[in-house]
Amino acid sequence: MSRQDLRNLYQDVLVDHSHERHGYGLLEDPTAESHGINRSCGDEITLHIRAGDGVIESVGWTGHGCAISQASASMLSDIVAGLTRDECTRCLDRFRSMLQSRGKDDGDEELLGDAVALSGVSLYPPRINCAMLAWTALEDGLTRIDA
Amino acid sequence: MPLDIDRIRAQFPALRRRVNDHPLVYLDSAATSQKPSVVLDAERTFLEQHNAAVHRGAHTLAAEATELFESSRERLARFLGAAPEEIVWTAGATAALNLLAYSFSNASRGRGGEPAERFRLGPGDELVVTELEHHANLIPWQELAARTGATLRPIGVDDAGRLRMDEAVEVIGEHTRVLAFAHVSNVLGAINPVAELVALARRFGALVVLDACQSAPHLSLDLKALDVDFAVLSGHKMLGPLGIGVLYGRRELLDAMPPFLTGGSMITSVMMERAEYLPSPARFEAGTQPVSQAIGLAAAVDFLDELGMEQVHERDAELGQALVTGLTAIPGIRVLGPAPGEPRVGLAGFIVDGVHSHDVGQFLDELGIAVRVGHHCAEPLHRRLGLAASTRASTSVYTTDAEVAAFLDGVGRIRAFFRA
Ligand SMILES: Cc1ncc(COP(=O)(O)O)c(C=O)c1O
C-alpha cells in the first residue's frame, strides 16, 4: 500500500463507521469504565465494558474526535462483543501491530473485521494515536474485569 | 507601493518545498513563519566569523559578538519604538511571560526590596486576563496567583469571540494589579482595543502586559504610543529564528524588578552568601546568550522594515479579508472571529460542519496545504465558543492570492470527501 490517494487512509468503510458510530452511548450497568485522551488534539473517549461469565457482553462509548478515532471506536464495539478477555487481548495486539507496520500489514480480517480498513493509518504515523484511542481505553478497562 | 510577492517569495528557501506532490502552500505562519535567506545568512555569518560568548573576555571575536548582539538589541528597540535598555532577550514569548510572573512572585517574597514593592502580590490582589488568551499568557498568571494568594479574573468574550468591554469595565477595578492580554488573538485574528484597556488599567494603577506575538508580524508596533508597561513577542513568528524572543518593559519598571533566572553575566559583584545585580536588561539575561538568534531576529526586522510595515499591514489585511470572505462563501463553513469587512489580521480560524479539524488538516495536507488544527493553545476560548477544536489558516508576507485560492478550493471539497 502507498500514500498515493487519501482514500487509502479514509476508506469508505471508515467513513461509514465515522457516521454510524456503532456502540455509541454509555451502558447502564458497566463492569468497567475507562477514559482515554489524545493529547495532541484533545480527542476524548469514555468507554464502558459489560462482562459476565468470562465474556465481554458489550461495549459502549461516548466522546468526540476525528473520523479515524470515531470509526475505530465504532469498529471496536462491533468486534469485541462476545469475545473472552484473552481473545480481546489478541485482537488488540494484532490491531496494534497492524498500525505500527508502516504499510506492511493489511490486518487479519477474520480477527479484526471492518477494523482492517484502518490499516492505511499505519502510513500516517501522527494519526496512529487517533486509531488507538478507543483500543487503549479498552486495554485499560480489561484490567478491571475478572473475565 | 504594493509588495512584490514573487520577489519576496524568492528569498524564502523553504517555500520551494513540495509536499505530497504539490507545491507547499504554507498557511501556518501564526505557529511559526518561514525565514528569509538574509536571516539564515546572518546567523551563519555570525557562527562562521564571529562566534563567541558576549560580555565576557577581551578577545577580538568576543568584542565583535558583543557589538553585534547589542546592535541587534538597538535594532529591535527601534522596530518597537522603545529604548535598547528596555529590550530583554528571552527564549520566546512564553519565556518572557514566565520571567515577568516569576519576577513578580520573587518580589512578593520580598526580593528586590522597596523598589520592587509595586510588584508585590498577595490575597486581595487581582490579576486580570481575557478568555481568549493563548495558554502562554494564562498559565503563568494562574501559577502566580496560586503562589501569591492573588485572584485571577477573566474578561469574557461574546458568542462571536469579541472581547466583552462591558465586562472589562466591571472586572478591572481597584484590586487589579496586573492586566495581561493579547494584542491580536491567535485563533480569531481580531485586534483587541489596546487603548481602551490601557485606559481602564491606568485608572487603577494596574500594570499592563501586552502579548504582541500575533501583532508584531502584521502591524506596525509603537509600544510607547500603545503606552503598555510590558510587551512580549516571539522572533520565530516574525520571520526570525527559533529560540529568541523579546520582553519589553518600561525602563523604571525593569530596573526595579528582581531577577528571575540568576547566574553568570547578570551581576555586579558576588560574595559567597549574596550577590548584587546589574540593571536591566543584563539583570534578566543570566547565562550564555542566544547570540546568533538575536542577530537573526535583527535581520528579520530589517527585512520587514525594508518591505515597510505599512505595506506589510495593508497586504496582511487584504489577505485576512480574502480568507474570511472566501471561507464564508463556502457552504458548511463557519469562520470564527470578526465578520467580513471587520478588521482582522491575515489569520482565520474556522469550523467545517461535520468534519473534525484533524481530518480537515489531513485533507489539506494531501494537497500540500499546511494549516493548524486543534485548540491552538487556547482551550478556554474554544470551550467558551462550544468547540473542541478548530482549523486555522494564517498568512505572512510571502502568501500569494493563488495560495489563498488553492486553500479555499481545497476547503470547498472537504465535506463531500467525508460525506458530511
Ligand atoms: C498569542 C500568542 N501568545 C504566546 C505564544 C507563545 O509563543 P512561543 O511559543 O513562541 O513562546 C503564541 C504562539 O504560540 C501566541 O500565538
From TrEMBL, chain A:
Database matches in CDD domains: IscU_like
InterPro entries for this protein: NIF_FeS_clus_asmbl_NifU_N
SUPFAM superfamilies: SufE/NifU
MF term (GO), any: iron-sulfur cluster binding
Domain NIF system FeS cluster assembly NifU N-terminal per the UniProt entry, residue ranges: 10-130
GO BP annotations listed: iron-sulfur cluster assembly
Protein name: SUF system NifU family Fe-S cluster assembly protein
Species for this entry: Terrimesophilobacter mesophilus
TrEMBL record, chain B:
Listed PROSITE patterns: AA_TRANSFER_CLASS_5 (PS00595)
Family annotation (InterPro entries): Aminotrans_V_dom, Aminotrans_V_PyrdxlP_BS, Cys_dSase_SufS, PyrdxlP-dep_Trfase, PyrdxlP-dep_Trfase_major, PyrdxlP-dep_Trfase_small
Domain of life: Bacteria
Domain Aminotransferase class V: 25-407
One example of a Gene Ontology biological process annotation: cysteine metabolic process
Keyword field: Pyridoxal phosphate, Transferase
Keyword check for Transferase: yes
GO MF annotation: an example: pyridoxal phosphate binding
Cross-referenced CDD domains: SufS_like (cd06453)
Catalytic activity: (sulfur carrier)-H + L-cysteine = (sulfur carrier)-SH + L-alanine
EC category name: transferase
Cofactor: pyridoxal 5'-phosphate
This protein's record includes keyword Transferase: yes
One Pfam assignment: Aminotran_5
Enzyme Commission code: 2.8.1.7
UniProt record similarity statement: Belongs to the class-V pyridoxal-phosphate-dependent aminotransferase family. Csd subfamily.
NCBIfam families in the record: sufS (TIGR01979)
Record-linked PANTHER family: CYSTEINE DESULFURASE, CYSTEINE DESULFURASE 1, CHLOROPLASTIC
Task performed by this protein: Catalyzes the removal of elemental sulfur and selenium atoms from L-cysteine, L-cystine, L-selenocysteine, and L-selenocystine to produce L-alanine.
Protein name per Swiss-Prot or TrEMBL: Cysteine desulfurase
Organism for this UniProt entry: Terrimesophilobacter mesophilus
Gene of this entry: sufS
